[in-house]
């Protein structure tokens, strides 16, 4: 690791500031859209009072949900692996003394023998992060921007200046959904006034230019957001992340592109939870255990388990498990 100094510290601060530019851009665009729609379109241009009231009420509802979900996506901290996945000082010292190769992997295998890990590297090795000095849990990846390992990492999104992963993936989906509805609603209600702009049916005021640009912006973002939202809906239905869609996870007995899928209904509940009343609210309700696959496993996923290691729903002595590894519904037999 390169030594840190005043120069590198200044560069890091500059990068942190630059990373906020897309968020500032979205915030300014959102502020302008509020002024253009609520003031210039609804209050200045609409003549029908009933139309004004209905449009303003619906608009403010979508605006509030959009801002709420966007805020939660930005400021929800990504979840990192628990301490059980970090190597002890003795294991770190042993790992540093061992050369890369089979001896290196043997140290990692001993450290991971009691951890519920089923995915491997492409070569079949234990997934280890040199930067964070930890054994990566399943679906965990290191983010080069955040410089941390992120549980169930989907991608690092510059538009929210945050990693999208286990802790905020639901918020990110709702952000896409409400931003799409926001743009579609603006485009639909602005359309008749946009047509009047081209037919000289609007008074010659500054409102007409806000109406024109508002429609163009809403229509343009609706197209891009619809494709992005549709893609992430497909990912949720298959219980995949963006990273897993591009590179299928590798398990002990080979690659399985649908290795984490539990069926459409259970895949949806893992992200949104069992309480459907919370599905449309940016409140954390995900059920997925971020440390290991959920029960029941499909028959095609039976290769996740070895002969000496299997899932059981019967109760076992909790003292035999590491702290933080237990699950009320799922337990894992110790290897013999």
Question: Can you give a write-up of this model?
Answer:
By secondary structure, this protein is mostly helical. It has 9 helices and 11 strands. The chain has helices spanning 6-19, 21-45, 49-75, 89-97, 102-112, 169-198, 207-238, 242-246, 264-272, and strands at 119-120, 128-129, 134-135, 141-143, 148-150, 155-157, 162-164, 250-251, 254-255, 311-312, 331-332. The chain has a 3-stranded antiparallel sheet, with no helix packed on it. The protein has a two-stranded antiparallel sheet with strand order 2-3. It is elongated, with a radius of gyration of 25 Å. It starts with 5 loop residues before the first helix and ends with a strand. Mean pLDDT is 84; it is low at 290-336.
Specify the number of helices: 9
Mean pLDDT over the residues? 84
User: What best-fitting shape do the alpha-carbon axes yield?
Assistant: elongated
Radius of gyration: 25 Å
Order of helices and strands: HHHHHEEEEEEEHHHEEHEE
Question: What share of residues is helical?
Answer: 40-55%
Tell how many strands the DSSP assignment holds: 11
Q: CA-to-CA gap between the ends? A: 39 Å
